[in-house]
Amino acid sequence: MLGNTVPDFSLAATGGRDFQLSAHRGRALVLYFYPKDSTPGCTTEAGQFRDLHARFRKQGCEVFGISRDSMKSHDKFKANLELPFELLVDAEEIACKLFAVIKLKNMYGKEVRGIERSTFLIDGDGILRREWRAVKADGHAAEVLEAVKSLKVETRP
User: Would you place residue 155 in the very low, low, confident or very high pLDDT band (cuts 50, 70, 90)?
Assistant: First the structure.
């Protein structure tokens, strides 16, 4: 999918909103997939995207977090961390399948299906420009911000 237009999809978002990918044309987007709300690695990653959020916005880029958690879980996670961006609910794995982030993981000696921590950078024309898979949470947001800066994003009215 790298270098190609990302197919349109829609998901429920925190704040009582609906997210439609095509509605965000003209701005760069960071979609970061994470395994589970309120877990240590996911809290670290979300906090770092939060702390750099103003710098992403200055580059003309929006950030969205995606997991399979419920809206109730997302609302609590967002409030606890004071996240300035929306979280998207993908309980039916629509975006997870599109971006192929569901993997078999080993948890306590048992294989389970789960989200592999992954991030995708989509330009203002809807083209997937970068992807990061199996990332480590700490420091990842800063790495993504550097990639956004290299996009030379054009913000359209």
Answer: very low
What residue ranges do the domains of the chain occupy?
Answer: 25-149
CATH architecture of 25-149: 3-Layer(aba) Sandwich (3.40)
Is 61 part of the annotated catalytic residue set? no
**Catalytic hit among 11, 13, 31, 42:** 42
pTM of the model: 0.92
The pLDDT of residue 29: 97
d(C-alpha 101, C-alpha 148), whole Å: 21
- Best CA proximity match to 60, nearest among 29, 22, 84: 29
Q: Report the distance separating Cα 148 and Cα 63, nearest Å.
A: 11
148 three-state secondary structure = helix
**Average pLDDT along the chain:** 93
